[in-house]
Amino acid sequence: MKETWSSIASLMGVLAFCQTLLHTVFPPELRFAFLKLFSRIFLSFSSYCYFDITEIDGVNTNELYNAVQLYLSSSASISGSRLTLTRALNSSAITFGLSNNDVILDTYNSIPLLWEHVVSQRQSQSFSWRPLPDEKRGFTLRIRKKDKPLVLASYLDYIMDAAADIRRKNQDRLLYTNSRGGSLDGRGHPWESVPFKHPSTFDTLAMDPDTKEEIMNDLRDFASGQSFYQKTGRAWKRGYLLYGPPGTGKSSMIAAMANFLGYDIYDLELTEVHTNSELRKLLMKTSSKSIIVIEDIDCSINLTNRNAAANNSSNSNKSPKTRHQCDSEMGSGAMEETGSNNTITLSGLLNFTDGLWSCCGSERIFVFTTNHVEKLDPALLRSGRMDMHIFMSYCSFKSLKILLKNYLDYGEGDLEQSVWDELEQVVDKARMTPADVSEHLIKYRRDKAKAVRELIEVLKLKAEMNAGKRGLELEEEQEQEQEKRTLVAEDDESKLDLHEDGKGLVIKENGKMEHHHKE
Ligand SMILES: Nc1ncnc2c1ncn2[C@@H]1O[C@H](COP(=O)(O)OP(=O)(O)OP(=O)(O)O)[C@@H](O)[C@H]1O
Ligand SMILES: [Mg+2]
Predict the structure, then answer these.
(1) Which domains does the chain have, with CATH numbers?
(2) 495 Cα to the center of ligand 1, angstroms
(3) pLDDT digits (tens, 9 = 90+) for 496-508
(4) How far, in Å, from the CA of 518 to the mean position of ligand 2?
């Protein structure tokens, strides 16, 4: 018995010695290693496993941390009573997040997941190339061990996607331009961006409501059609061609599309791009969920001569050549044809929108605008390339109603029926663009009644002018017809005409008639 006690006492002594040794002799790193060992033993008996997602991973910012933060900020079931509020640069919305050391319960496929936001003070820094924040932040995810495969397989991807969506919704759209052509900046980007705050929406757009609805449905189907595009083996992209006279709302429509879908816009200035490969580079640097716009496509490039273009492109594909070589090979004829020393070709552009390269991202919309659709090559118009052709026309009665509602807040019952009738009668004949009409409404918007009166006057005037013009055109046409007829008659007279008229032979030559009586 005495021996047992003495052995216990000696064991205690050893333990106490170990503890003192641990605190005095062993450096903190070793103590930390011991603690880690103990926690590992503890965890091996626990039915949970833990994932740490730290804010800074080595020297890089951990993207997953930001994504989790955003994702959790969208969750309404935050348990803590203290929330952190943030507003990012260029953002119009405020997001809230978990406060320090707060927890939140999430469920995914009916599996419970517990998130904890762990914040601790960073120990005084040794030398570092990059100063680190004073606080060490991270999320710890606790899940049941048996759910681990599912979380690793899809939950984290789901969080990344959800965070990207939230970011897009919170952040203002961006408008990118390639003002430097296709050349790259210091960070290897060919695009420059500015926040895009165009107020145009489908509500403010004056056009036929049925067409508008059709376009909106088309966009909706496109944005939610990932599985459809995958199933049918098509690249997830769509092309729209907007055509019509200047001031009919083509650019406004693009802005409305971007605002409707929450996409960024890449405004491609084709005249600044010099080669097909530059064009391809630009395409590769566009992000998904974006609208790539080429305005006034008929003015940007000579798009009518596809064969010549194809030859040029195949020439330039054979071996890399300098611009100078290429230009001299193209010869002055080609230069005159394109109007500049641009070597972008129609086939290059078609590859850009349609070829294999167009699939290097997904969920992208191409929009081309033109005032002269008849000038475009049929290759550009064939279906599959430009899926929807949208004609933006002069202001119709339906469009006018939208403009009156938006600018003057005049609905159906706010004006007398006779006024509506008057407007309806003249608006089509006036052939005024929505831009002209809205200019008028803005001018007199302080006096609404006057605005409508003035508008009717202008519409009538334009309608008369058009009718006059049409009258003049008709007169001109008639005159021309008359001239033609007289020319034909003169022509007929100049011919030799022989016929009998009962009394004898009549010879008609160059307008002169001779009678030869029968003997
Ligand atoms: N359909 C429309 N609905 C509402 N506003 C319009 C419409 N069309 C034109 N506007 C007004 O006219 C202005 C010019 O329109 P916009 O720039 O969209 O015309 P566009 O068709 O792109 O012309 P262009 O062919 O010259 O580029 C816009 O700022 C907008 O206020
Ligand atoms: Mg425009």
Answers:
(1) 50-122+132-170 (no CATH), 175-305+345-391 (3.40.50.300), 397-481 (no CATH)
(2) 59
(3) 455 555 555 555 5
(4) 79
